């Protein structure tokens, strides 16, 4: 679970303000879940404009996850993480002005490993889920003033760990 997040800023004392980089900062939060044995799954978040759609395969656990995003005006996807033909498929299609602000869920031991049991996606406009079973250990992956632009984690036959990439646009803060 993420307990804290920090940001580096440059102090401009002669102007009486704190300035951040004009470029957005992208950081990883997580992962929550299994940290061993399975394949690492990741997204290249370079120049991703927004997440367009999320597909979740779910039943008692999260069987699979597929993320579709926009980059350079094109729609792309890294493919399915987890199992293709298990569980119910639910697709979340985000509006053009909608972005993910928080991902929550639960992890639980199944057999000899931890697995993601549930997921819920909160956006600036809606809440989607929960998908799967909300039991055992809860987790939260908040964007903390930014937006989720990608995911990473571990997947075998099911989704075993999940983390997020968060893009934050820092603003100028004036000191009085």
Automatic annotation (TrEMBL):
The keyword Transferase does not apply. SMART domains: Jacalin. Keywords: Lectin. It comes from the Eukaryota. It comes from Rhynchospora pubera. The keyword Signal does not apply. This is Mannose-binding lectin superfamily protein. Residues 26-168 form the Jacalin-type lectin domain. One of its GO terms (molecular function) is carbohydrate binding. PROSITE patterns: JACALIN_LECTIN. SUPFAM superfamilies: Mannose-binding lectins.
